[in-house]
Amino acid sequence: VTNVELACASSSRAVMLAADAIAGGIYDLALVIGAEKMQRGLLGGGEMQASYQSLMGLFIMPGAYALMAHRHMHEYGTKPEHFAKVSEKSHRNGALNPYAQYQQPLSLEEIMNSRMIAEPITLYQCSPTTDGASAVVVASAEKARQCTGKPVYLGAWAGATPIYHRDEPELSEGPTDIIARKCYEKAGVGPEDIDVAQVHDAFTPGEILSIEHLGLVPEGEGGPFVWEGGTEITGKIPVNTDGGLLSRGHPLGATGGAMIAELTRQLRGEAGPRQVQGAKTALLHNAGLGGVNVMILQS
Q1: Of these residues, 82, 91, 250, 285, which one is catalytic?
Q2: Torsion sign (Cα): 218, 222, 223, 228
Q3: 147 is catalytic
Q4: How many Å apart are CA 37 and CA 34, to the nearest integer?
Q5: How far is CA 243 from the centre of its chain?
Q6: 3-state secondary structure of 28
Q7: N or C terminus of the chain: which is more exposed, having fewer CB within 10 Å?
Q8: Domains in the chain and their CATH numbers?
């Protein structure tokens, strides 16, 4: 038994470590379990990052994402409505998911008029406090074919840890763009080949930033792309078809496994009313306190 801790990205990193061990011939079958029982109050401590940002209170996630949102608005003309549109889409998808924490759609007006948390992020643009669990079976190709008639293959996987004391002024979600390029190269695909994606949308700006850093849309064009329906189930690049962290829920250590489960359903054609037609190649992006993981899954 191996314990893996990477906050929100724990279970996806555990899947990657299991895949490494299987690729190295150490094992041929592994079970990855992610579970979380959330606290209901603020976390203590703060020792991990002693930069001036954290001393100003910016280690609180809504504040950090709000700063990135404002920078994006300043540089590219992104509008508050673009961020709110992410939540509208996610809650619409969550209403189609029996495993989602929130199963009711929300209107754009309801989202934008909900309580302000960190401007421009309102309450319904924040992922909820969630208890949950996920499980992923990882196997060699030979073993997988013995276990199921519908194996899903890991075409590539990579993870990296951001440098916490960079204090850089530009927009950043850590090394997402770097490891995404490595995964595309290893899997022999490009962003244009992705049929469906799961990205880390703990707060609505995260989805817009992620699809840009992953190369799914050009830099600065994420807001209009979302607004025009590009990330809908029937859009050009369906994103977070199960409702994402915003609607399905965000049980930290279980989140990555839940993201993999949704992509597996999509690639097997088992997603029901959320199904992306003809999905063959999927992309996962899962961020945590101390690391970012990217995977490419293929049917």
Answers
A1: 250
A2: positive
A3: no
A4: 11
A5: 11
A6: coil
A7: N
A8: 7-298 (3.40.47.10)
CA distance 92 to 153: 29
What is the rounded CA–CA span in Å between residue 4 and residue 11?
A: 7
Q: Tell me the CA distances in angstroms from 263 to 11, 82, 152, 268, 294, one per residue in order.
A: 15, 25, 9, 9, 13
**Phi-psi label, residue 244: left if phi above 0, alpha if psi -120 to 50, beta otherwise:** left
Helical axes 80-94 vs 204-213, angle rounded to 10°: 100
Q: What's the CA gap between 243 and 5, in Å, rounded?
A: 24
Per the CB < 8 A criterion, the answer to whether 295 and 176 are in contact is no
Alpha-carbon span 126 to 178, nearest angstrom: 26
Residue with tokens 């703060």: 46
How many whole angstroms separate alpha carbon 178 and alpha carbon 180? 5
At 19, list the tokens. Answer: 């895949």
**Overall pTM > 0.70:** yes
- CB–CB of 252/5 below 8 Å? no
**Tens digit of each residue's pLDDT (9 = 90 or more) over 82-92:** 999 999 999 99
Least Cα distance to 238 among 213, 256, 220, 211 occurs for 211
Catalytic entry in 8, 72, 183, 200 = 8
Question: What span, in angstroms and rounded, lies between the C-alpha atoms of 30 and 22?
Answer: 8
Q: Is 8 known to be catalytic?
A: yes
21-25, 58-62, 177-181: lowest mean pLDDT where? 58-62
Q: Residue 267: which pLDDT band, with cuts at 50, 70 and 90?
A: very high
Question: Residue 31 is encoded by which pair of tokens?
Answer: 């079970």
**Could you give the CA distance from residue 9 to residue 11 in angstroms, rounded to a whole number?**
6
